[in-house]
Amino acid sequence: MANKVRWGILSTAGIAVRKVIPAMQKSRWVEVTGIASRDLRKAEEAAHALGIPQAYGSYEELLADPKIEAIYNPLPNHLHVPWSMKAAEAGKHVLCEKPLSITVAEARTLLAVQQRTGVLIAEGFMVRSHPQWVRASELIRAGRVGKLSAIQGVFSYYNTDPRNIRNIPGCGGGSLMDIGCYPIHISRFLFGEEPVRVLGLIDQDPKLKVDRLTSALMEFPSGQSVFTCSTQLVYHQRLQLLGRLGRIEMVMPFTPPPDLACQILIDDGQSSTTETFSLCNQFTIQGEVFSRAVREGTGVPVPLTDAVKNMAVIEAIFRSAKSGRWETPVP
Description:
Blueprint: E1 5-10, H1 14-24, E2 30-36, H2 40-50, E3 54-56, H3 59-64, E4 70-73, H4 80-89, E5 93-97, H5 104-117, E6 121-124, H6 131-141, E7 148-158, H7 175-191, E8 197-204, E9 211-220, E10 223-230, E11 232-243, E12 247-250, E13 262-267, E14 272-277, H8 282-296, H9 304-323
Parallel strand pairs: 1-2, 1-4, 2-3, 4-5, 5-6, 7-10
Antiparallel strand pairs: 7-11, 8-9, 9-10, 11-12, 12-13, 13-14
């Protein structure tokens, strides 16, 4: 395709170099033109390894390049909004890694910048690009389980490295910000509603000072969603969607490997069927969907307004864990 969107990558973060960039480069809508680091040598090494034409020794230099049309921001959580704002002010479209911000107030500042600049800004919940979630949504809307009334989820892994960015509180670390944001987002997506109140329970690591085990209950107008997330449990992920007529089990809901077939289980209480999806990479699809939105003016799965609402739920869960009471999300 001659009219690919020219992308720049802000930093040589592991998720970008190992997962997102190689996946995006497989899309016929994407051209990864440049990558930046505060260390030019690191940028050059990443550019050489990934076949990227241009390396920059600063983020500012990348944003000043008129050839770059869109940027992917995989920086630590506390740098998402500041650098996404700078990118938007430079006239670049922005795909920002989740969670978009570390507070609702911060997310609102980015929303104001978008409204002023007119660029496209989206939160990188790659799960929304995966065919299994498109299908799950179709089944729910078609009434396959009856009225969706309950969602149950778990997402966990083990990481106690104090140097890891996910374990540094000042950088927006902790399990709720890193992985709890997924079941929150998916629950809001499937119910098509916002939770009216939430209840949170948090176990904080006494040394790292981040939440290592968080459980939350979200009350929606149409039902309930409950999940547990942890950065200090065995690696595991599952999600159940339950209604009066049946249930849907998402076997690998959040990070399905691109080289393994993905499955969802549909059960009516007496018999079950399994739907298997062809191999795909949700990061490839995410980059393509965003690039098409830039070129064709189509929508994106997770616009900035949605990201603000997701952050409001996260914030309310943190408040609830401190107050010991139900809290209302305030976007």
